[in-house]
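User: I've been trying to design a sequence by hand for this structure and keep getting stuck. Would you show me what you'd pick, starting by listing the structure so we're on the same page?

Assistant: Good idea, let's start from the same input. This is the structure you sent:
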């Protein structure tokens, strides 16, 4: 394993920070590194809103379910999927308006996620820690209003960055053989692999340093997925010009 892979496999989300700021040059380098990610058809369909305004931070933290690290972090940014630039290119080139195809929603969302993960790794390589904030989609219209997001732009998730005051142990991932299929999808092995991983994660949850729980991965993820339906998202995305056809 080389140093880059070691850094990647050492990732854990950081939600507790000391008060030191992130220097402007470092932040620029992190964003520049994010932008180096591959981009579908090179459309670079993202924007980052750096939220410095304390009032907006507080509002967004509350809208995201009172996540205090949104307020505490040295930097909080909202990662947006952004097709407004491409809408401008399309109009400029005489190709007309974007029509809200699901395909363009996927492309822009993937671009934004690749940017963000590259940013996170760049930040971690500099000793920073952070966490993504999907909770902003609890009330996406609050975020959209605070940040004055126009049509063709939607907030995918937030990102907190800061100098870690505390770092959790690395969470064990699914074993490679649970996620890697050779030649064809091995549907018959899914339940077996989940059972094996549940045992591993039950040990992890019962033995970790903080937030000890008597649970396993199935219970955790089933609850998370079934509780976070965010049924407003389709209508919200449509109102922002995404997923209309
Ligand atoms: C898109 C996305 C959204 C997330 N949203 C939140 C969030 O709103 N609040 C939070 O505390 N963690 C959030 N997380 C962090 C996950 O809970 C975390 O990555 C996962 O539990 C694995 O833990 P680790 O990152 O420490 O390895 C999010 C992660 C991703 C990728």
């Amino acid at each position: 394993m080389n140093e880059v892979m070691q850094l990647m496999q050492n990732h854990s989300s950081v939600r507790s920070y000391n008060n030191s700021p992130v220097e402007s040059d470092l932040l620029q380098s992190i964003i520049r590194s994010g932008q180096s990610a591959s981009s579908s058809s090179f459309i670079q369909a993202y924007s980052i809103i750096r939220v410095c305004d304390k009032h907006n931070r507080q509002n967004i933290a509350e809208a995201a379910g009172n996540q205090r690290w949104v307020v505490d972090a040295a930097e909080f940014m909202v990662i947006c999927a952004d097709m407004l630039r491409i809408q401008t290119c399309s109009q400029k080139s005489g190709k007309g308006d974007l029509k809200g195809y699901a395909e363009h929603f996927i492309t822009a969302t993937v671009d934004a996620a690749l940017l963000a993960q590259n940013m996170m790794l760049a930040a971690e390589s500099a000793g920073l820690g952070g966490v993504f904030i999907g909770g902003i989609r609890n009330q996406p219209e609050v975020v959209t209003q605070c940040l004055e997001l126009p049509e063709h732009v939607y907030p995918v998730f937030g990102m907190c960055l800061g100098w870690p005051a505390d770092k959790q142990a690395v969470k064990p991932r699914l074993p490679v053989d649970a996620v890697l299929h050779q030649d064809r999808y091995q549907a018959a092995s899914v339940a077996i692999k989940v059972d094996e991983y549940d045992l591993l994660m039950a040990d992890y949850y019962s033995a970790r340093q903080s937030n000890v729980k008597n649970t396993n991965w199935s219970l955790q993820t089933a609850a998370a997925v079934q509780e976070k339906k965010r049924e407003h998202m389709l209508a919200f995305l449509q109102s922002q010009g995404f997923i209309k056809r």
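That's my pick for every position. To get oriented when you compare it with your attempt: The CA atoms of residues 78 and 157 lie 6 Å apart. Residues 11-13, 15, 64, 67, 131-135, 157, 168, 171 surround flavin mononucleotide (CB under 6 Å).
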